[in-house]
Design brief:
It is built from five helices and five strands; from the N terminus they run E-H-H-E-E-E-H-H-E-H. By secondary structure, it is an alpha+beta fold.
Length: about 140
């Protein structure tokens, strides 16, 4: 299994991202978004983007180590871009085809840096919907 962190961005469709998120949930990775939330809020026909940011090693779980912690640029159903994190196995990332040119990759990384987080977006949407839609603790 490769462990050198690639400095690239990969594009996936929403279905592929859901598969990666489900794999992260199955393995119990610490950085992932709830698959049901993503199904509800992602734009179904949009491209989603992964940018490996760091190598995450788990000495206590060598069977799933290392992982690549990826920053995500997600397009939600409102058309807005939000960011999140997802731990991905290197082999899973390597299977995603390289389809973006250098200028597009730089633009995506820049947009990740400017995007609101998934949590910030969800809180704003809940506040805009009114108090009856606020999550309860």
């Amino acid at each position: 299994m490769a462990s050198a962190l690639p400095r690239t961005v990969r594009a996936v469709d929403t279905g592929q991202l859901l598969d990666l998120e489900q794999e992260a949930a199955t393995y119990g990775f610490s950085q992932r978004l709830p698959v049901d939330w993503l199904r509800e809020h992602l734009a179904a026909d949009a491209r989603q983007y992964l940018f490996p940011a760091l190598v995450h090693r788990l000495r206590h779980r060598p069977e799933v180590s290392p992982q690549w912690r990826c920053e995500l640029l997600l397009t939600v159903s409102t058309g807005e871009h939000i960011r999140g994190l997802l731990d991905v196995l290197p082999d899973a990332f390597d299977k995603i085809p390289e389809t973006l040119d250098t200028a597009s990759k730089k633009d995506i990384v820049s947009r990740i840096d400017r995007a609101v987080t998934q949590r910030e977006w969800a809180e704003r949407m809940a506040a805009d919907a009114g108090p009856e839609h606020m999550p309860r603790n």
